[in-house]
């Protein structure tokens, strides 16, 4: 898949699947899977580094993970997240951040928000870097939202998100992530835009879906928001495998003669 395939998929009515990926070993697995595209999301600050929000992701942190993913998944389109405030520190700093992510191996950048930064986004796009937008619940603004809450529930808020979506299309974004908004709003935006929408908690009418890999694998069995489906009991499976190994070591059953150099 390349950047042009996104709108081609929308035209053909074919869905787009996207999943987060942060490291080399999972990138290798995903490279051999059918998934359409990989997102090195700034959620890695939480999932990989244990912070309580995505505001702790830095440009260098993103570049390190993007490089690992690109090496592990040379056959996949890689989306790299621009981290907290990186497009708000002036054009030169924004372009330096974009350069780091692209040189690390990203095929495009994803940027949260629209208002107050459309000129910077347009400049990035005119500089030859494809930009994916991100509206609805924007985790980098979680403090302003008063928590991880569904956005666009009333008419005024919904209109604001729709207007922002149109302005991102106008600015030249090639696709748009919609996070945690009512399904009707996800449908309306998807119908009104010519660029594809990729939803997470935005209902089934968006042109594609994205999930955090660790969430869909059920690695944290206590995390089960309404929009999430666990495709594996990852937490229990990993714990059981490690406990099995532990028991074998204690019982002297590992390593066996076959696993021992003569
Ligand atoms: O960082 C991330 O994982 C994301 C997805 C939730 C879309 O932006």
Give a written overview of the molecule.
The chain has 262 residues and is an alpha/beta fold. The chain folds into 2 domains: 3-231, TIM Barrel, CATH 3.20.20.60; 234-262, no CATH class. It is 42% helix and 15% strand. The protein has helices at residues 3-12, 24-31, 44-47, 59-72, 91-104, 118-126, 142-145, 155-171, 183-192, 213-216, 234-250, and strands at residues 16-20, 37-40, 77-81, 108-112, 131-136, 175-179, 197-200, 208-211. Strand 4, helix 6 (118-126) and strand 5 (131-136) form a beta-alpha-beta unit. The longest helix is centred in the middle third of the chain and has 17 residues, at 155-171.
Descriptive labels:
single chain; 262 residues; alpha/beta; TIM Barrel; 2 domains; eight-stranded parallel β-barrel; 11 helices; 15% strand; binds 3-methyl-2-oxobutanoic acid
Q: Please outline the major beta sheet.
A: 8 strands, parallel, barrel
Distance between the termini: 48 Å
- Number of alpha- plus pi-helical segments: 11
Principal-axis shape: globular
Topology:
Layout (H helix, E strand, L loop, with lengths): L2 H10 L3 E5 L3 H8 L5 E4 L3 H4 L11 H14 L4 E5 L9 H14 L3 E5 L5 H9 L4 E6 L5 H4 L9 H17 L3 E5 L3 H10 L4 E4 L7 E4 L1 H4 L17 H17 L12
Parallel strand pairs: 1-2, 1-8, 2-3, 3-4, 4-5, 5-6, 6-7, 7-8
The structure holds 3-methyl-2-oxobutanoic acid.
3-methyl-2-oxobutanoic acid binds next to β6.
What can be said about this structure in brief?
The protein has 262 residues and is of the alpha/beta class.
